[in-house]
Specification:
The chain has 92 residues and is mainly β. It has one domain: N-terminal domain of TfIIb, CATH 2.20.25. Helix content is 0%, strand content 43%. It has a 7-stranded mixed beta sheet with strand order 1-2-3-4-5-6-7, with no helix packed on it. The radius of gyration is 13 Å and the shape is globular. This is FLYWCH-type domain-containing protein.
Length: 92
Protein backbone atom coordinates (compact mmCIF):
# COMPACT_ATOMS: atom_id res chain seq x y z
CA UNK A 1 0.00 0.00 0.00
CA UNK A 2 1.50 3.32 -1.02
CA UNK A 3 1.92 6.09 1.50
CA UNK A 4 1.03 8.97 -0.81
CA UNK A 5 -1.89 7.31 -2.59
CA UNK A 6 -3.03 4.43 -0.36
CA UNK A 7 -5.38 1.80 -1.76
CA UNK A 8 -7.40 -0.98 -0.19
CA UNK A 9 -8.38 -4.21 -1.93
CA UNK A 10 -11.42 -6.08 -0.60
CA UNK A 11 -12.78 -9.14 -2.40
CA UNK A 12 -11.21 -8.06 -5.70
CA UNK A 13 -12.58 -4.50 -5.55
CA UNK A 14 -10.17 -1.58 -5.32
CA UNK A 15 -10.74 1.46 -3.09
CA UNK A 16 -8.80 4.72 -2.79
CA UNK A 17 -8.53 7.06 0.17
CA UNK A 18 -10.89 10.01 -0.32
CA UNK A 19 -10.78 11.83 3.02
CA UNK A 20 -8.98 11.33 6.33
CA UNK A 21 -9.76 12.77 9.78
CA UNK A 22 -8.24 12.13 13.22
CA UNK A 23 -10.72 9.34 13.94
CA UNK A 24 -11.74 7.83 10.60
CA UNK A 25 -11.00 7.55 6.90
CA UNK A 26 -13.42 7.53 3.98
CA UNK A 27 -12.58 5.28 1.04
CA UNK A 28 -14.36 5.26 -2.34
CA UNK A 29 -14.46 2.60 -5.01
CA UNK A 30 -12.00 3.49 -7.75
CA UNK A 31 -14.93 3.25 -10.18
CA UNK A 32 -16.79 6.14 -8.52
CA UNK A 33 -16.57 8.09 -11.77
CA UNK A 34 -18.79 5.34 -13.20
CA UNK A 35 -21.29 6.11 -10.41
CA UNK A 36 -20.36 3.17 -8.16
CA UNK A 37 -21.78 4.13 -4.75
CA UNK A 38 -19.84 1.70 -2.52
CA UNK A 39 -17.97 3.50 0.26
CA UNK A 40 -15.85 2.31 3.17
CA UNK A 41 -15.34 4.08 6.48
CA UNK A 42 -12.41 2.82 8.54
CA UNK A 43 -11.89 3.48 12.23
CA UNK A 44 -8.89 1.61 13.57
CA UNK A 45 -9.31 -2.06 12.66
CA UNK A 46 -13.02 -1.72 11.81
CA UNK A 47 -14.21 -1.35 8.22
CA UNK A 48 -17.81 -0.22 7.66
CA UNK A 49 -18.97 -0.87 4.09
CA UNK A 50 -21.85 1.36 3.04
CA UNK A 51 -23.95 0.30 0.06
CA UNK A 52 -22.67 -3.20 -0.61
CA UNK A 53 -23.67 -3.51 -4.28
CA UNK A 54 -21.04 -2.51 -6.83
CA UNK A 55 -22.42 -1.65 -10.26
CA UNK A 56 -19.46 -3.32 -12.02
CA UNK A 57 -17.31 -6.46 -11.96
CA UNK A 58 -14.26 -6.80 -9.70
CA UNK A 59 -11.69 -4.27 -10.83
CA UNK A 60 -8.37 -5.14 -9.15
CA UNK A 61 -6.03 -6.20 -11.93
CA UNK A 62 -2.71 -6.09 -10.10
CA UNK A 63 -0.81 -8.66 -8.09
CA UNK A 64 -1.37 -9.34 -4.40
CA UNK A 65 2.39 -9.83 -3.99
CA UNK A 66 3.91 -7.05 -1.93
CA UNK A 67 0.59 -5.89 -0.45
CA UNK A 68 0.33 -5.67 3.34
CA UNK A 69 -2.55 -7.66 4.82
CA UNK A 70 -4.38 -6.53 7.95
CA UNK A 71 -6.70 -8.22 10.42
CA UNK A 72 -9.96 -6.25 10.37
CA UNK A 73 -13.61 -6.53 11.33
CA UNK A 74 -15.96 -5.83 8.41
CA UNK A 75 -19.44 -4.39 8.93
CA UNK A 76 -21.63 -4.65 5.83
CA UNK A 77 -24.58 -2.25 5.68
CA UNK A 78 -27.38 -2.02 3.15
CA UNK A 79 -28.39 1.17 1.36
CA UNK A 80 -30.46 2.25 4.40
CA UNK A 81 -27.40 1.65 6.64
CA UNK A 82 -28.92 -1.34 8.43
CA UNK A 83 -26.30 -3.87 9.58
CA UNK A 84 -26.41 -6.84 7.21
CA UNK A 85 -23.35 -8.85 8.28
CA UNK A 86 -20.24 -8.71 10.46
CA UNK A 87 -17.10 -10.67 9.51
CA UNK A 88 -13.67 -10.88 11.18
CA UNK A 89 -10.90 -11.29 8.61
CA UNK A 90 -7.50 -12.71 9.57
CA UNK A 91 -4.14 -12.04 7.93
CA UNK A 92 -3.53 -14.47 5.09
Amino acid sequence: MGRKYPKMIIDGFEFKLYRHTKTSSLWVCTRERYKCKVRLVTTGKQVHMKSISHNHERNFEGSYDGLASQRVTMFYRDDKLHLVNKICLENQ
